[in-house]
Specification:
314 residues, mainly alpha, 2 domains, two-stranded antiparallel ribbon
């Protein structure tokens, strides 16, 4: 049977310990087993790879689930590893958070998956607060190919940056990070054929997709008993518009919470700035200019201005 391999950064093995997946090196003759699953991986072994500048290793795609679990469990270790430079740490945290987020849309145990997402969101938030340059470093690490799980973590990172720029309290930032990360959790209950359709949606399909916002609200409220209005509003109202043209409730103006307004800006930016099967992405400048010039009546312009300054590094 033919094996298919996935390339992963060597640095992601920094957490050490016992792996549940085999690790391979690539040679001219093919792939060679470097570290076997269920055998302790020692630091000195990793140092040997680094000494000869091997930056990538490989895993069999059949072990991808175990690899993603490993990432999620070790995200805090990556964030606190002082041997990693800022950009390397950001890439590791992003890959770990993205893997945790992917689990949200694939696991049957939603409460457990949401708990994992909460940990990942808080780790990223703490890192952004501790390091003035961490936000832009994380932005550099973002994936610009659109998947629901990458979109959710991208929106969380952008929202954290906006919230920090606006001077939100630590408690508000923690709630914002989770609300942004979970803003599309309702897509778990959306017809996947409609969600992944590559052609333009018809009216019936689009109306079905729009249900993800109240679906997400119900998941948080009923499945895990989330009672924080800030988080619930971010999930339910991130598609509301200041002029009342949004959904699902058609509220407008001050009735839309600050959290929902922040997530709305981050959500729209990432949707326009990422590649889809049916469109090429806009550049960062084009996206921000489009939002500023064409969506002033729909978005909170103060939040949008803050995001523009945030993305400029100010």
């Amino acid at each position: 049977m033919r094996q298919n391999f996935i390339e992963i950064p060597t640095s992601i093995l920094q957490a050490e310990g016992i792996l549940k997946f085999d690790v391979f090196l690539r040679s001219p003759e093919g792939y060679v087993l470097f570290a076997a699953k269920n055998v302790p991986l020692e630091k000195k072994v990793l140092s040997g790879l680094e000494s000869v500048y091997i930056k990538s290793v490989y895993i069999d795609e059949s072990d991808e689930l175990f690899y993603r679990e490993y990432l999620g469990k070790n995200i805090s270790k990556f964030a606190n590893d002082r041997s990693l430079d800022r950009d390397e740490k950001s890439r590791l945290m992003y890959d770990a958070a993205r893997s945790v987020m992917r689990g949200l849309f694939e696991k049957e145990d939603l409460p457990e998956a949401i708990s994992d997402v909460k940990v990942a969101a808080e780790v990223i938030m703490d890192n952004v607060l501790k390091d003035e340059r961490a936000f832009l470093s994380l932005v550099k690490a973002l994936s610009y190919d659109y998947y629901t799980y990458t979109h959710c973590i991208n929106v969380a990172i952008y929202s954290i940056g906006i919230g920090k720029f606006l001077g939100l309290s630590l408690d508000d930032l923690r709630a914002l990070a989770l609300g942004a990360a979970l803003h599309d959790v309702g897509k778990c209950h959306v017809d996947q054929e409609v969600l992944n359709k590559q052609e333009k949606l018809n009216d019936e399909e689009f109306n079905h997709i729009k249900k993800h916002a109240p679906f997400g609200f119900d998941i948080l409220l009923d499945t895990i008993g989330e009672m924080d209005e800030r988080i619930l509003s971010a999930v339910r109202h991130h598609h509301e518009k200041l002029d009342g043209s949004g959904y699902p409730d058609g509220i407008k103006g001050e009735k839309i919470s600050t959290f929902a307004r922040i997530v709305a800006v981050a959500d729209i930016f990432d949707a326009l700035n990422t590649k889809r099967c049916y469109k090429e992405p806009m550049s960062t400048f084009e996206t921000l200019a489009f939002m500023k010039n064409n969506m002033a009546s729909q978005l909170d312009t103060n939040i949008l201005k803050s995001f523009i300054l945030c993305m400029s590094g100010k």
